[in-house]
Write a structure and sequence with these properties.
The structure holds 3 protein chains of 3 kinds. By secondary structure, chain A is an all-alpha fold. Among the domains of chain A are: 53 residues; 49 residues. Chain A has 4 helices and 1 strand; from the N terminus they run H-H-H-H-E. The N and C termini of chain A lie far apart (63 Å). A 9-stranded mixed sheet of chain B has the order 13-21-20-14-15-19-16-18-17, with helices on both faces. The longest helix of chain B has 29 residues. Chain C is mainly alpha-helical. Chain C has 2 helices and no strands. The longest helix of chain C is centred in the middle third of the chain and has 21 residues. Classes of the chains: A mainly alpha, B alpha/beta, C mainly alpha. Strand 1 of chain A pairs antiparallel with strand 8 of chain B, so a sheet runs across the interface.
Chain lengths: 156, 610, 54
Amino acid sequence: MAEEIYRQNRVSDVVWHWQKEGGAPTPSTRKAEIIKGLVGIVIGYSIAAFLYFKKGHTGMPVFIVSVSTIITCCAFFIPPAFHRIEAGFNRLAHGVGVALAYILLVPLFYTFFVCSHACMAVMGIDKLKLKKPANEETFWEERDPITDKSYYRKQF
Amino acid sequence: MNILGISAFYHDSAACLVQDGKIVAAAQEERFTRIKHDENFPVNAVRYCLAEGGVDPDGLDAVAFYDKPINKFVRILETYMSIAPRGLKPYMLALPIWMKKKLWIPLQIDKSLELAGLKMPDHLYFPEHHESHAASAFYPSPFESAAILTVDGVGEWAASTIGHGRGREMEILKDLKFPHSLGLLYSAFTYFTGFRVNSGEYKLMGLAPYGEEKYKDLILDKLLTIRDDGSFRLNMEYFAYLDDVKMTNDKFAELFGGPARQAESEISARERDIAKSIQVVTEEIVLKMANHAHDLTGEKNLCMAGGVALNCVANGRLLREGPFDDIWIQPAAGDAGGALGAALTVWHLVEEKPRIVVPGKDSMQGSYLGPDFEDDEIEAYLKQNGYVGKRVEDEDAWAKEIAQIMADEKVVGLCQGRMEFGPRALGGRSIIGDARSSKMQTVMNLKIKYRESFRPFAPSCLEERASDFFELDCPSPYMLLVAPVKRARCKGIDDTDSVPMREQINQLRSDVPAITHVDYSARVQTVTEESNRRYYKIIRAFEAETGYGIIINTSFNVRGEPIVCTPEDGYRCFMRTEMDVLVLGSFILRKEDQPAWDQADDWQQEFKLD
Amino acid sequence: MRSLKYLGRLLKELGQYAWQNKAWWLIPLVLILLAFGILMGVTQTTLPFIYTMF
């Protein structure tokens, strides 16, 4: 007699994946991989075509077509290989992202934020109340009551 | 009406579902992803809550996020403006995350609902961080009206607030703003004593009774200026959390006679004395704040939330020495509880729905708001994996068998009923044992939990027996109050000062030594049949067996691991440790009956030590 | 499309905040940060296809 398979209820199905071996990839993940593979091959072939037909190159277009085809085939048929390739590119992307963040944000810090600090110092603004307290009786600050319900719709 | 509450991106992200004013489900993301204090958007917790509430694809009416992201963003920018050119390091860490994630909350909510197969509702709300905390403390409380005190690290700008709740109305009256924060002050000392910020605060609190308040005057003299109403200013010259990615600086280290303790190194007398000193300062500030809240509101009841409200030693002192007749503390007082508060704010303040109060009974349902698993499913799971367990359908027989196992000084992992919401395990996902055993504290710490041996264990006690064991005259269902053990039960109470720490740990301090901390106190959970029938039956059966209606209760996890959620998590933790018996729903599994555990996993590598 | 919708909402609310609190400095800063964010985002998303540029 065949073993009866237990059917998980709606809650358990969401939080406990003991029936799904190793947390199998969801259809949406597979779909995303295939789309990525397709986008890659379209870009690769377009560039190869441009180089071959408009610029007259031969070696580079062959290389691009080969690499694009291999990666797309991996996306379709060998997901583990595709994951590795993708992880490699993601690491590269992360590194470039960090470098770019430094290139863009550091100058901003030393221009905008340092200048703002100087302006605040000149105007005597002590937003964080970092100066030694004087003889204030209390440090509690009064709040205005909320009268308008639209306050809750705003992100500020 | 279905309202989904969400907290995310700081620590302990969580989701909560409120249906027509009733709290239907709530859970922290860490339980599903198995990443302690997971701060990522709580996609899994959202999916769970919506499944538990049986919400249809277009059935969600509103989503409430627990803070106001733009205000928080502006506070961060203004902080950098105030301290530049210092602060480049935290700026470089914070800004990319804000640009990538934290400014896109509505988009993230939309995406996560899509993943759960739901339509984004038209109504999206953003109550303020401390208003969410205040709502989580007041609305589920058993009080018609009350003063409200919220104290944590920081929200948008506020770090502590005093509020007033009446019926469905709630208002924040006053606040103390960043960076002058009691939560951050406590975390600074957590960091300095070598524990992890945002998770090691309990350890600092547990360490305090081993020390003396030698540094109290120094702290009060150099680090802060306190007023009688509990308001204070920190001397930011000693703290590094504005301009660095650590909490304290060299000047702070100089003040306390040397650098911060390295994590996992030996704990010296200095750390013990620092722990005691900051604990006493914290208690005094909380007491003063509570007195001020009492003066402002004239209420006889107090509700509390925010991370500092999890300081159960301060709470116990507040109850004994403070001006309030009664105190109710939100069991998920940290940021996770903000999800609940945000949803309740929308229900009562935006939708203007009335609040129904049952005197003496809160609406948290024992904080058992997480997933439960059917016995048939557990059976199918055990069968599929070849694990051996005995199904005991009769609850009394089940409880009796577990009680007998505990009475034999065996350690039991208990995974039954709905999972708890908040940091405490309350009998749904707990490790339990015999409170009378003199070796239990050491065994459980070193062989089961793999954590520091000084850390105390808490008791679960039949509510009707609480006054037999503790100086406690009110229920403490959420393990948020510390009370002295009855003096008549204590041993050697007068000669502890001369004993070194290591010996103090193993000292027989009472007839329930496993739950009696070094200062003869305990963090009590009182259990009623109504709040958790099966758990109550276990303790009652234990009483029938031994004459003691009290057991040890600690969270079902190892150090650094989130509390277990599913039976599978429970089984894995059971097999990795020296636990003797596992209870999964109605099933009792003994270690010796199980097949060899061939999963070559190492929890110490899997979970980052906290 | 969805991202653009929420970008619009964010810019509108940041503008309202700046107006309400007279925090005019916020507007240029946010525009710069968003431009940086988009640049970093675009770079990071297109990088996985960088092999096609060989």
